[in-house]
């Protein structure tokens, strides 16, 4: 009665199943996040492109790059 008719292997398999489900959800959430270094590289790339197109001058480029790199 205590084991509800499932036996030791039934409970073991149920615990293993739910542990696997939890691990898969955890992995899916972690892999969907964009790393901080990737966001920063993207921002620097956009800044480089804006300078190349002439949208900003070199002084503004240097100031914004310093902010993105954490020097200011």
Word description of this protein:
With 72 residues, the chain is mainly alpha-helical. It folds into 2 domains: 1-33; 35-72. The chain is built from 3 helices and no strands. The protein has helices at residues 7-32, 36-53, 58-68. The radius of gyration is 26 Å and the shape is rod-shaped. The N and C termini lie far apart (68 Å). The relative contact order is 0.07. The mean pLDDT is 85.
Give the SSE map.
Blueprint: H1 7-32, H2 36-53, H3 58-68
Helix pairs in contact: 2-3
Distance between the ends: 68 Å
Give average pLDDT, whole number. 85
Largest sheet: none
Shape: rod-shaped
Low-confidence sequence ranges: none
Radius of gyration: 26 Å
Work out the helix count.
3
| Record field, number of beta strands | 0
Amount of beta strand: under 5%
Could you give the order of the helices and strands? HHH
Number of domains: 2
Structural class by helix and strand composition: mainly alpha
Helix content: over 70%
Characteristics:
72 residues; mainly alpha; 0% strand; 76% helix; 3 helices; 2 domains
Short overview:
The protein is mainly α. It has two domains: 33 residues; 38 residues.
């Amino acid at each position: 009665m205590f084991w509800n008719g499932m036996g030791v292997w039934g409970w073991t398999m149920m615990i293993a199943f739910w542990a696997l489900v939890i691990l898969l959800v955890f992995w899916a959430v972690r892999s969907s996040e964009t790393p901080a270094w990737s966001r920063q590289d993207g921002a620097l790339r956009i800044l480089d492109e804006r300078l190349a197109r002439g949208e900003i001058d070199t002084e503004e480029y240097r100031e914004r790059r310093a902010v993105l790199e954490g020097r200011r």
